[in-house]
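User: Reviewer 2 asked us to show a designed sequence for the structure in our supplementary figure. I'm pasting the structure tokens here. Could you produce the per-position amino acids so we can include them in the response letter?
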């Protein structure tokens, strides 16, 4: 008999003795009156899953790693106990069972499970107690299967509801129950009616909740507040003093007509599309570069940005907008607009280099697509069920990979797409010349170094009495028949050659800005090469065509590992919604096409149908958040259990239905929301103490929540009121001035440095609206960043607006704000003669109202003080560099070297007005404008 058999016999002997003792003990006491079947059912449905999830990992799954000698796989094992534990389970007596002490964490030396995050809930602890009190029965597998079948046959119980899906990786997951309120978003949109008639439907829902809470709503805000609020919300800019005066007058005559007329004017303004597009680009993560270590320029990404602006301005039906972005290239592969629209699938950060295997890069791209599509259009975080069935929502991991398969034939490319008449190409000639100058400079410097290298190469051939072979021809020669690379060059020259070669790649890439290309996708097999330049498969190259026509297979990837393929899957959609696809059949209601094309198109149709509860709720909630600062469901990218539940679920369903009934029109939906009393309420309340006590987070919307201007709104407003804003729409990104230190700071890109950031030469190019500013993932504008412009690497569902100290220093000291202050002072100097009139006009432009007498006294005194100060100060003229010396370390020698970077944009540069160029009185007025910009009244919308 071996040692394992001896141990087993010993355990059986101990068990026999223990059972005799327990039987004697149980017969001597009265057991709780719990039916055996009920206890067995409790064990099967509640206790066994607890043991399996929380305990078996350390106490039974691996025989070679049993903690404390305690096995929990069977009742007999538990009764035996472990090393020094004989009373782990005492059937009929939970208090005497040491396992209850462990799971309750009442003994600091024995806390199980040991991790805080794994602790049992109160309900789980209660289930264990009831099971033990019922005699701790452990039914056989046949009985367990019977209990499970009975449980699974009931659609709804006290534990929750079953959700039909294609099934998870285990029966326990497939048949788990959900509280209806936790999976509200997966249930069909209810056809609800407003709780009362006679008022705006939105107000009926909101006011009913306010009244039920014993509160009253704030009154309607005054006209000046309302026009400022609406103008910022719809156009992202403030109203002019004339517009405010006209609206106030019209409101006195007929306030409802004046309000509707105002909304119509703002919605039809070209500024509307620019404002709404900023919201959308936050979600889609738009940028003009690729991100990561090789932050390559995506030269034509601006075309997608402009497509979004056009779509909002044209009020493109949202369901059409969805489909074009997901599958425009499959809807009409010959329409440039559709090719550009599919650029949505290229907005995320991505790279592929020789350092990463192609399957890994490919997986990263497809993972990103699956997740961003779920977040953008269905408010669902898809990555949560990539490695396992979703822990909280009815989303099996197989469906993650069915969605993954829907994109498995999607290839990122730069596609030919001729420019549309409405696309702005006016800056092409100017920028082409600027880029060509930098490319010529890099090629000239490289040629100088190559000339030196070739002189040494000639010496190498001469020393060996060999005929000289040019650099181009000797590439095919064996190493022993040609000089080594960089022969005769020193470390600095070797390093500079690599820099110049990289510069040529960078500026050659930049020359694609002027070609009719679009950052887009097409349907093909695996065809990628690198993230620097991607093209459709070349018909002349058989190998490329072969790869492009090779239909990829998709599998469940165990643990999300691309090299751990499991079950093969076909393209499909989320089954929990209960909405079949048009392509589906009785065998698979949720299937998508399996061919090379049409996978995305059928997915887009499924997402964009009016019955899709996630889609309609998602966009209704987003638009609501654009107006109220927070959605009815506070996490617009996550409608799952881990996201915040809606504060007004019936209202959200009502809005989702209304949105579809109004033709998927976002413009009509804006007007519907903004004509409600809820939107027009004042931001202060007559009984603020009661409000803060009963509704501290303003969930009931008894007042309008003030919001701080976004970074873009702050910059655009300063340009607007200073008279410097350029309204030129679309086209190549503009390059505003940013902090010079940041602009010139070294930024790595592969084995070299990225070019320094250079602003556009002319103010009219620099001072366009912020949505047109160049967006470099690896180089954020410090002003934008400090005011919470989101990073383009992740989808932003809602702008944060905390107040932090760097914002104060930025507004008081940054070049951006001081330049705008000086420009505004110059405008005021032209529009008004006396300094008092200038102060009054500045006050009107920024705040839309007249200064009080006390404010005028303070501002006048400050102005006079500043005049005295500036008469004593002689500002220095700003000098812009035309070159900069860079320092790098050569990768092989480890020695540092220097090289010159050419800053050609600062040649013939037209700077913003300089303090050195204006009189002390203008500089003093600029200080007044600076005060205006640093006030809460400027920075907040009330």
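Assistant: Here is a per-position design you can include in the supplement:
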């Amino acid at each position: 008999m071996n040692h394992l058999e001896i141990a087993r016999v010993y355990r059986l002997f101990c068990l026999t003795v223990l059972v005799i003792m327990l039987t004697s003990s149980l017969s001597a006491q009265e057991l709780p009156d719990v039916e055996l079947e009920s206890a067995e059912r409790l064990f099967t449905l509640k206790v066994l899953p607890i043991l399996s999830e929380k305990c078996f990992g350390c106490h039974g799954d691996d025989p070679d790693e049993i903690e404390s000698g305690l096995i929990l796989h069977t009742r007999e094992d538990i009764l035996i106990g472990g090393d020094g534990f004989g009373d782990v389970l005492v059937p009929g007596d939970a208090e005497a069972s040491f396992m209850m002490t462990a799971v309750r964490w009442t003994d600091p030396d024995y806390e199980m499970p040991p991790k805080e995050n794994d602790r049992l809930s109160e309900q789980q602890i209660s289930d264990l107690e009831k099971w033990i009190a019922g005699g701790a029965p452990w039914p056989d597998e046949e009985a367990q299967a019977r209990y499970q079948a009975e449980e699974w046959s009931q659609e709804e119980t006290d534990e929750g509801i079953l959700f039909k899906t294609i099934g998870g990786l285990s029966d326990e997951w497939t048949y788990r129950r959900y509280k209806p309120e936790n999976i509200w978003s997966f249930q069909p949109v209810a056809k609800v009616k407003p709780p009362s008639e006679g008022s705006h439907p939105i107000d009926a829902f909101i006011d009913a909740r306010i009244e039920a809470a014993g509160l009253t709503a704030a009154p309607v805000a005054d006209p000046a507040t309302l026009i400022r609020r609406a103008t910022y919300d719809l156009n992202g800019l403030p109203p002019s003093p004339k517009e405010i005066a006209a609206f106030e007058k019209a409101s006195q005559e007929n306030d409802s007509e004046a309000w509707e007329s105002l909304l119509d004017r703002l919605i039809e303004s070209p500024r509307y599309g620019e404002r709404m597009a900023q919201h959308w680009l936050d979600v889609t993560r738009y940028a003009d570069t690729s991100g990561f270590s090789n932050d390559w320029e995506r030269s034509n990404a601006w075309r997608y940005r402009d497509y979004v602006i056009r779509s909002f301005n044209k009020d493109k039906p949202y369901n059409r907008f969805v489909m074009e972005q997901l599958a425009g290239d499959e809807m009409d592969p010959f329409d440039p607009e559709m090719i550009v629209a599919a650029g949505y699938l290229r907005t995320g950060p991505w790279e592929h280099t020789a350092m990463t295997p192609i399957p890994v890069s490919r997986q990263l791209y497809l993972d990103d697509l699956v997740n961003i599509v779920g977040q953008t259009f269905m408010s669902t975080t898809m990555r949560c069920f990539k490695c396992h069935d979703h822990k909280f929502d009815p989303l099996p991991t197989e469906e993650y990979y069915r969605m993954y398969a829907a994109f498995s034939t999607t290839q990122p490319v730069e596609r030919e797409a001729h420019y549309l008449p409405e696309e702005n190409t006016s800056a092409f000639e100017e920028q082409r010349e600027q880029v060509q100058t930098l490319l010529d400079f890099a090629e000239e410097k490289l040629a100088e170094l190559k000339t030196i290298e070739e002189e040494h190469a000639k010496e190498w051939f001469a020393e060996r009495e060999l005929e000289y072979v040019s650099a181009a021809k000797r590439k095919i020669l064996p190493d022993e028949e040609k000089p080594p690379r960089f022969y005769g060059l020193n470390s600095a020259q070797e390093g500079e050659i690599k820099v110049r070669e990289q510069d040529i790649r960078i500026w050659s890439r930049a020359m694609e800005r002027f070609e009719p290309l679009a950052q887009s996708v097409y349907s093909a097999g695996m065809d990628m090469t690198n993230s620097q330049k991607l093209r459709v498969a070349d018909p002349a190259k058989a190998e490329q065509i072969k790869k492009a026509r090779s239909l990829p297979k998709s599998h469940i990837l165990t643990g999300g590992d691309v090299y751990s393929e499991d079950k093969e899957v076909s393209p499909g959609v989320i089954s929990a919604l209960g909405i079949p696809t048009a392509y589906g059949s009785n065998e698979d209601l949720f299937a998508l096409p399996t061919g090379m094309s049409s996978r995305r198109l059928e997915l887009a149709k499924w997402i964009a149908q009016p019955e899709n509860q996630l889609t309609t709720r998602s966009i209704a909630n987003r638009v609501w958040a654009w107006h109220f600062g927070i959605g009815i469901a506070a996490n617009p990218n996550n409608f799952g259990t881990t996201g915040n539940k809606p504060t007004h679920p019936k209202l959200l369903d009502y809005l989702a239905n209304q949105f579809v009934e109004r033709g998927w029109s976002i413009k009509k939906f804006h007007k519907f929301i903004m004509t409600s009393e809820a939107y027009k309420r004042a931001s202060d309340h007559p009984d603020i103490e009661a409000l803060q006590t009963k509704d501290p987070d303003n969930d009931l919307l008894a007042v309008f929540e003030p919001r701080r201007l976004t970074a873009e709104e702050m910059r655009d407003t300063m340009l607007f009121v200073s008279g410097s804003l350029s309204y030129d729409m679309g086209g190549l990104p503009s390059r505003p001035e940013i902090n010079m230190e940041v602009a010139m700071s070294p930024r790595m890109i592969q084995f070299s440095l990225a070019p320094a950031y250079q602003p556009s030469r002319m103010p009219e190019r620099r001072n366009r609206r912020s949505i047109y500013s160049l967006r470099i993932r690896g180089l954020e504008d410090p002003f934008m960043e400090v005011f919470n412009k989101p990073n383009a690497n992740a989808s932003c569902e809602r702008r944060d607006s905390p107040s932090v100290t760097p914002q104060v220093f930025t507004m008081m000291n940054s070049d951006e704000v001081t330049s705008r202050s000086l420009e505004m002072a110059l405008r005021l100097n032209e529009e008004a003669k006396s300094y008092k009139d200038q102060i009054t006009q500045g006050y009107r432009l920024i705040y839309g109202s007249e200064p009080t007498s006390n404010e005028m006294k303070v501002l006048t005194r400050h102005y006079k003080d500043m005049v005295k100060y500036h008469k004593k100060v002689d500002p220095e003229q700003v000098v812009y560099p035309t070159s900069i010396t860079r320092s790098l370390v050569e990768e092989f020698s480890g020695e540092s070297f220097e090289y010159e970077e050419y800053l050609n944009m600062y040649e013939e540069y037209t700077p913003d007005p300089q303090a050195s160029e204006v009189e002390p009185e203008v500089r003093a007025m600029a200080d007044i404008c600076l005060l205006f910009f640093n006030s809460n009244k400027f920075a907040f919308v009330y």
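For the response letter, you might also mention the following. The chain is about 45% helix and 5% strand. The longest helix spans residues 428-463.
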